[in-house]
Amino acid sequence: MSSHPVKRRRLSPSTHNASPRPRISESDNPATRPGSQLTHGSKLQKAIQTNEVPAVSINSQGTHNATAEFALASGVYKSSFFKLQMDELLNELRPNYDKHFARLQETLRQLKSIIEQIPEKPPQTAWEAEKELRSTHEIAVPFPEPRPGRGTKYSFTYAKPTNINVVGSLSLQNGIKSTDPLTVDLAVTMPSAIFQDKDYVNFRFFHKRAFYIATVAAGIKAAAVKDLTIKFALQDGDSLRPVVVLESVKPGHLSSKVRIRIITAIEDTLFPVSRTLPMRNNLRQFTADESASEGATPFYNASLRSEATVALYHKYIHSNIRKCESFRDACILGRAWLRQRGFGPSYQKGGLGGFEWAALMSLLLEGGGPNHKPVLLKSYSSYQLFKATLQFLAGRDLTNPLALFTAEVSSPGDSPVLYDGKRGLNILYKMTPWSYTLLRREADTTVKMLNESRDDNFDKVFILKTHEPMLRFDRLVRLPASSTGQSLQDLKSYYIIHRVLITALGDRARLIHLRGCSTGPWSVDTRHGQKTAQGYILVGLLLDADNATRVVDHGPAAEQKEEAASFRSFWGEKAELRRFKDGSIRESLVWSDLVTAPSIITQILSYTLNRHFNYTGSDIKFVGDEFDETLRDNGDGIVLYSSPRFQAIHDAFSSLQRSVQDMDGVPLTTRHLAPASPLLRYTALHLESAFKVLCGPVDIVLQFESSARWPDDLVAIQMTKIAFLVKIGDYLQSSGAASTCKVGLENVSSKILNNAYLDITHSSNVLFRLRIHHEREQMLLERHLKDKEAHLPMRQELAYALSEYKRQFVQAPRLTQAVRTLCTRFPLLSPTIRLVKHWFSCHMLMEQIREETVELLVARVFAQPYPWDAPSSIMTGFLRTLQLLARWDWQQEAFLVDFGGLDKTVMELIRTRFSAWRKIDPALNTVSLFVASDIDIDGVTWTQYEKPSKVVAGRICTLAKAAMTMVPEIEFGLDLKELFHASLAPYDFIIKLRSKPLHKASTSPTTSKSADRREGLLASGHTLVRSFVRDLQACYSPNILFFHSDGNPGVVAGLWNPQILQPKAWTLKMAYSTSPANLENIEDSDQVVINRPAILNEISRLGGVIVDSIEAQG
Amino acid sequence: MKKEFEIAGYAVLPLQLPKTSSVKAATHYMYLRAHEPRNPDKDTPRSMFIANVPVDTTEAHLRHLFGPQLSAGRVERVHFESVSTKKNQAAIPQALLGGGVSKNKKRKRVTTDELESQLEDITLPAVWDRPLQKSGAHAVVVFVDQPSMEASLKAARKAARKVLAGSGAKKIVWGEGLDEDRVPALGLERYLNHSQAQYPSRGELLRTVNDFMTVFEQVAEARKREAARKAQEPDEDGFVTVTSGPKLADVAHEDEARELIEKQKKKQEGLEDFYRFQSREKRKERQNELLRKFDEDKRKLADLKKRKGSFAVSLLASLCFSVIH
């Protein structure tokens, strides 16, 4: 045994101080060779150092020439850029071990000698032992429940540890930096002499272990190491295994970022492996308890067994680090990946931490594949190791136990089993069925991300934190659960809740996840569990969007007596026997789908939780329904796209489409009538029910078959369009398809923009706004643009006309088609878009950003949902959109949306356009946000011409960031209204509008002819306000920004452009009202300054009775 | 002492904006001077250039200001910045009209120009009864004669002196005493009118369109004639260029050229690996491309690092992002 080729470090000063890297040395083979540390340290350390050389040089950039690195990068990694980012990440994540060693060496050595000098204790009864430690050292022995009492037969002894070693990530150097302190594990091997053969049953081992830990704690406490606080904590949240935790009080001596954990270990051979197999029952005295029903005590057994394998695994992982040079880096990647997904070593956090990851990879290097072939090869790169491990997790279902190096292992329950026969431990013993399901889902998603050739997805695999519950789960339920302080008990209750929820929700939920809260360290003089903090269980649900809203559940048929009985016993009085249309008589459940009722998921959960666990309504906190309610309250009561009101508009459109197919009296035949309105793609927040009209105006675009009879001139084309519109109107009115038709004018200041539209009040009372698309316009505009002789204002007008043409006639119909398809594919897309629009509207941004841009932002969350699945609730959709906005570095990155055809070449095209825009407009004056998709690779269709301006774009992202910081608070009961509440404080002035200006007008004397006019206007109260705001923008842009939204109808807020507030020399180009800066001394300077009072006065005069008051702020 | 209130050579005229129901009265400053355009015309001597007019300025306002309020010259007409005068916009319709029109206007007969200006005059019905000016906009006021322009400028200077020197003289109030019937109202009334005016009557629309199309056809006809005649005229050396049939429009040319290129491409397809040097070059190119891409990636990473600080930091930041449960 003494020839283990293992890295060994000793705690005692080493003999080779000349070594360039001073580090403490430690041994990993404490159980077998206590005295061997001194002899082989130097030789092996050298071996380790030489072993490290290639690993380091591969990962440090610049040591190799570019070609070698390039060859490496292009072959074994996803892409060279991925590899570069990964190297960078690894470098950043690798803790500086030399520094830590140097700093820790002294403390660790001191601790070691303290522990070694703790005097041995003769056998004591539990009572005596506890009493003595309490009275002399003020230490409460952290006995796990049930605590040993007076009747305990066995005695408690303390003897000097067999050895003391540093184990775990610090000595293996496979840890990562994090916000948590760096944990240094000091394993104290308890001598076998203090245990008896039968100690593996009935907590006897754990009681003795607790006593041992307490004595060690007492010894350290007595030695009073400077600046260290001593506490008890649980190892991996497991109440059977309390440990001593030492933290430095103040930075300096020990960095506050380091925590020393004293854990225990036993000799490998102390208890036979056969005693701790998963199927064994080692808690015999509790057979009367219900736990006996299952018999086996896998968690207890594994917990015990893992004490014996501390050294074994340390050694094992270390040997793999030596064998496989990228093992360490793969461990770092794995740890980072797990951490971003919220997995941790404690069973509450999923039971999969860095150690388990390393052990898993080690095992996979030896087997796990088909025919016991290894899954991993030691020649793999770190990326390949990482990916293959994930592939294994995603592909192999371990609830069907997998045993390595041994025959079949049977296991109770549905938890995953990966049994390591050599060391006798199921390394996944802390994983629960739900955390395992979640892990596999995550692994599956990540493998998909890594396989995607389009994107490197690096950010989503390693950087983005995916475990924020409100972004991850569609619904959250928080149940109060006072922790009993007993892991076995807690686990059992989790299992029961989980089982009930699974039965209750059935196919409504795709995944049900439970998370308990773990207990932190506690003071050594109190008993654990005395301060039972108000714990809770957080249940996260991933819903099935199609089934979640089903009103009636069908149970077993009445004839199936047994099933029916169990159905009845589960559901109680809620179960009803019903006859269905197909004649069958079945047990069934009927839930309420009234608007006033909470969502069906909530109804089911509150009913079953109350029935089975006596939770009352006030105990349970549901998170998720509020988002649906917010939308219902603010979106005309409509939540789903299948609402009859959306349907009505579609029907009207189809009927109109038929009417225009062949029109008498119109000289050209129709090619296509295309929808181009949010009302026709399920994304309008309001289905404005205006006066006499159901909703509208609904934009539609008509295209005729091409004809040579169109004039070849832009102005004449507009005139011809008007003639056509009049004709179409005449036809529709005479054929009875429309009740009224009138031609309206727009963009009258320009002769080459689209000048006219036709307002069609359809017979079904939907108001359509029809424009004619003539494809020749584009060619004419482009040709004139190429004409170099044209002067600048004209070129600008032409460019504007061209972009308007593309937007109105090409992109709007295309987007409508694409979004409509996506809405039917993802039922939650439509409500999410509408809620996000409401958010924008509440923050008065809707005048500044086109709603199409908003739709694209949300569409990406659904179309490219990685690292999650597409949202199945408004909550996740909404919050992920905000998160996307908060994380979007819009100045440097293009926003790409995939409508089904976004591949690498398209992305390349889009990126080229993006960088071209940034090059010609580096000040972001016309294009700030760049939002492209595979159906619109220009990317500026919806955002050009200051939609939004850079100030507003920045503000949008700031607001999203602020909202994201509030998200965790929502989970704890923050009112959702806070997210939708806009503060008026940041604006320079506020224009308050009269709520009912029209009433005022009716009293004015000029009403002679306005009676009928007003009638028409009552229809659109806020189009009037919108006209006013547009006027203001036209007069004062770009020097004043005006904010207004339907969500905040009574207010228009304004911001001065900060650049114009300083006095400047007067020029003709100043597009704002000025006053001389210095009236007293006017001839001295030509300085002028913006005349704010005069501008506000003008605004007030423009608005007349519409304006109630204007307040300047700050 | 006579104090001249001037800014960059412009006389400063303070105007009081009356108080409204929502804000206090404020002072607006208009800047005036004699009109000095780069290309003066016959109206220039009697024109005044006004900068920074209030947004609600109308011709009536300026007439009222120089007439009753300053009791100086009589205004003949006003050109606003936002309303395009025929002169400076002439280039637009020229270029926009028709496909193959030559830019050489010299040889055109006067009738074509006349027709074009006629075409220019045909506009759609107005949708606003009172257009607004952009903030800080300027206007050119043409007076009946030069003395009346000069007198007005003088009167404005005098009034400004009085007001600015604080001699307690009566302030000039913008639009005060202006007959309400002469300018359409602002505010609600204006928007109500607009909502009606944007739907002109069917007859009015059709009339405009018909007028336009008639003139448009005449213009096209005239142009065609002109082109035909031009083709007959001998050039400086006395030659007549003979062309076969009508000249193709630019667009047709473009289409043709594009087709030609396509054809050429198709021809060359499949011939890339004909010689060994071609495939060798290709391989080399691919390698270089990969290397270049690698360098680019490296640069991208450095850029990313610069922007985001460091990975670990962003990683930690995203960790801290939410409260640890």
From TrEMBL, chain A:
Q: Pfam families, from UniProt? A: Nrap, Nrap_D2, Nrap_D3, Nrap_D4, Nrap_D5, Nrap_D6
Q: Which InterPro entries match?
A: NOL6/Upt22, Nrap_D1, Nrap_D2, Nrap_D3, Nrap_D4, Nrap_D5, Nrap_D6
The UniProt keyword set, sorted, is:
Nucleus, Ribonucleoprotein, Ribosome biogenesis, RNA-binding, rRNA processing
Which GO terms fall under molecular function for this chain's record?
RNA binding
Point out the coiled-coil segments of this chain: none
Which residue range or ranges hold the Nrap protein domain?
184-321, 326-465, 470-614, 627-824, 826-981, 984-1110
Q: Where is the composition biased (Polar residues)?
A: 27-38
* Similarity section: Belongs to the NRAP family.
Q: Under which name does UniProt file this protein?
A: U3 small nucleolar RNA-associated protein 22
UniProtKB/TrEMBL annotation, chain B:
Q: Enumerate the SUPFAM superfamilies for this protein.
A: RNA-binding domain, RBD
Residue ranges of every copy of the Rrp7 RRM-like N-terminal domain listed in the record:
6-194
Q: List the Gene3D superfamilies.
A: 3.30.70.330, 6.10.250.1770
According to the entry, every stretch annotated as the Ribosomal RNA-processing protein 7 C-terminal domain falls at 197-308
Which CDD domains does the entry link to?
dRRM_Rrp7p (cd12293), RRP7_Rrp7p (cd12950)
Which cellular component, as a GO term, is one annotated location?
Answer: CURI complex
Q: Name one GO biological process term.
A: rRNA processing
Which GO molecular function entries does the Swiss-Prot or TrEMBL record give?
nucleic acid binding
Q: Which Pfam families match?
A: RRM_Rrp7, RRP7
InterPro entries per the UniProt record, alphabetical: Nucleotide-bd_a/b_plait_sf (IPR012677), RBD_domain_sf (IPR035979), RRM_Rrp7 (IPR040447), RRP7 (IPR040446), RRP7_C (IPR024326)
Similarity comment: Belongs to the RRP7 family.
Q: What is this protein called?
A: Ribosomal small subunit assembly protein
Q: Which organism is it from?
A: Aspergillus saccharolyticus JOP 1030-1
